[in-house]
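Example record

Each entry pairs one chain with its bound ligand, FE2/S2 (inorganic) cluster.
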Amino acid sequence: MSSGDDTSRGMRKGLTSYGDARFSLFLRKAFIKGMGYSDDALDRPIIGIANTASGYNACHANVPDLVEAVKRGIMLSGALPIDFPTISIHESFAHPTSMFLRNLMAMDTEELVRAQPMDAVVLIGGCDKTVPAQLMGAASANVPAIQLVTGPMLTGSHRGERVGACTDCRRFWARYRAGEIDDAEISEVNDQLVPGAGTCGVMGTASTMAMVVEALGMMLPGGAAAPAVSADRRRIAEATGACAVRLAAEKLTPDRIMTAKAFENALTVLLAIGGSTNGIVHLTAMAGRLGLELDLDGFDRIGRQVPVLVDLKPSGQHYMEDLHDAGGLPTVLRELRDCLHLDCLTVTGRALGEEIEAAPKPWKQEIVAPLSKPVYPTGGMAVLRGNLAPRGAIIKQSAASESLLAHKGRAIVFSSIEDLTARIDDPDLDVRPDDILVLQNAGPKGAPGMPEAGYMPIPRKLAAQGVKDMVRISDARMSGTASGTIVLHITPESAEGGPLALVRTGDIIELDVPNRRIELLVEGAVLAKRRSEFTPPSHTGSDRGYKKLFLDTVLQADRGCDFDFLVPESVGVTPDRS
Ligand code: FES
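Structure tokens for the complex follow.
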């Protein structure tokens, strides 16, 4: 197991440059010996562990336990584990939005994996942006890597009713806004929604990313769904450490696993699990790092053939712990077998098809439906195009109201998130249930950071009348835990002068999901005049630092909102810089 004199491995890898390699190694070992390591330990292959514990991040509260279990697996396999901190991002503790920081975390991960000596790395992520950020970074560093997630939280209980973040957060808050529950009860609910460590317990973005990354082959089979506080989660962590040692020995790099066919598998699973719309943005960004372009129309074609099989909130009824009890992703993969590329390599060194064969035999359960009797007849998402979204838009049709999927209505326009906040509950707002709420300037550059503002609240006066859903359209994203007839990711965004910027209150918009269309029914001459009057929004603090970098280089949603300079030139990305 010794890394010997090989300068591409172990402690000899990537020596700090002092002009004398032997002195560099002498100095490096002198410093790390300050932590009590022996020469024997330092002569082993090194497995880095990206430690994303943070006092701000309850979704990662179990990371210290997982680091210990990963270390155990690494040491039992004869290598040396060394954990190191990176940025940790929690959805509710990242102003202006976690998406603003995803690429920063990807850069942090990439540079630390590249800069520090490690023969493989275990990436411990969980909360929404952390897993894509880590895999974007690992893909660019192209060091053998394996993903471990913190795992979903368990459910809580409110007055005997099972609850979990954060579909139920929104459901109870909507009831509170409508006056159905009072201050005392909403406060009680607040205590129960997140009963412990782990990621949101529904098919939100964190669960979605865990599932698609397992399907992609970058995680151990069965690694996505085990609850954060379970013994299974710790055993998966131990096995992940052992697997990382094998990855290092075989020099199995991410580019050999994250192939075009593996991304197709991930997209198929994204549709079949009723996954978060954020999944498509993140997978696009991850693929982009490897020089691969995801085809939105191809994604839509898969969605016409692959139905939703997993009955989890927000599209369905159950929670992630139930999916774990039903066998986790392997149960889904077994159903999807004929829709997958079974020859794709995984971190185990075996093909996906072999892993499906090796999975425990199925048992009777009600969480994953058979292909012959799906939860929803087509894929969870559809890709829309039209004069309002020339480069595409997304709708999570499985979480929408059937009656609104083909709908024509009057636009009620909000020019920014601030405008929305100021006017949505105004009793004098002229709005009817069949209107279409439109939010501008909430995209990658407009907000900035493309926040999850697409789930616009139902105006209070309509909510009080019992209105539960309306068509809502924006260039923003939406939390994977939200539901409704909500069109997202309109590209190009309004801040870039996309057609969304030209919509005015009173215009008629036609949404036609069955035919994948979204159209602004306004004459071309009128739109041309409005275009000539367009001015992009300005942002304070945009003249320096990370915000300037972000605004200068962030790409649109159809390119995963990565920074243009982080995508390999082979993709031929044209900067969106204005
Ligand atoms: Fe972290 Fe939902 S807030 S997964």
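Residues 59, 90-91, 127-128, 165-166, 199-200, 204, 206 surround FE2/S2 (inorganic) cluster (CB under 6 Å).
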